[in-house]
Amino acid sequence: MTALERIVARRMWFVPGVMVYGSADNLGFGMLIAESIGGQTHVYHESIEIGEHRQVVRFDSLTDHRGNRLPSKIPAARVIPRSRSEYPVFLTGTESEESFAIAKASSASGPVTADLLIVELGA
């Protein structure tokens, strides 16, 4: 593939029927821990997330509508989710070359089925 072909390349994949169980809702809190050993005091900060159910999807774990596995790395990938139910699905964060994080509305009581359109943008 020449450099010009790579710049204008726009590979696309349609991935139907992905189960989305991730949730963007979480409750977090921070805490400070003070520890005194041998006359020296150390203070530590900790952040704990409660109820977070993050779903990270790797591209190489997906199969498109033709039965082909997606590549392990997709440079400049954009993922467009479409829910098959009344509950929305959305990305949480930015896509990387290898994966993306997806979540469903917190009002959904269980997993939500979604279709994904994955597009590799030219450089």
Structural descriptors:
three-stranded antiparallel β-sheet, 49% strand, mainly beta, 123 residues
Topology (SSEs and partners):
Elements: H1 3-8, E1 12-20, E2 27-37, E3 40-50, E4 55-58, E5 77-83, E6 89-91, E7 99-104, E8 112-120
Antiparallel strand pairs: 1-8, 2-3, 4-7, 5-8, 6-7
What does this structure look like?
It is a single chain. Helix content is 5%, strand content 49%. The mean pLDDT is 84. It starts with a helix and ends with a strand. By secondary structure, the chain is mainly beta. It is flat. The protein is built from one helix and eight strands, in the order αββββββββ. A three-stranded antiparallel beta sheet has the order 1-8-5, with no helix packed on it.
Global structural class: mainly beta
> Runs with pLDDT <50, length 5+?
none
Sum up the overall morphology in one term: flat
What share of residues is helical? under 10%
Spatial order of strands in the largest sheet: 1-8-5
How many separate helices?
Answer: 1
As a whole number of angstroms, the C-alpha radius of gyration is 20 Å
Q: Give the tally of β-strands.
A: 8
Largest beta-sheet details = 3 strands, antiparallel
Query: Could you tell me the mean pLDDT?
Result: 84
What fraction of the residues are assigned to beta strands by DSSP? over 45%
H/E element sequence: HEEEEEEEE
N-to-C CA distance: 14 Å
Explain briefly what this protein structure is:
The chain has 123 residues and is mainly beta.
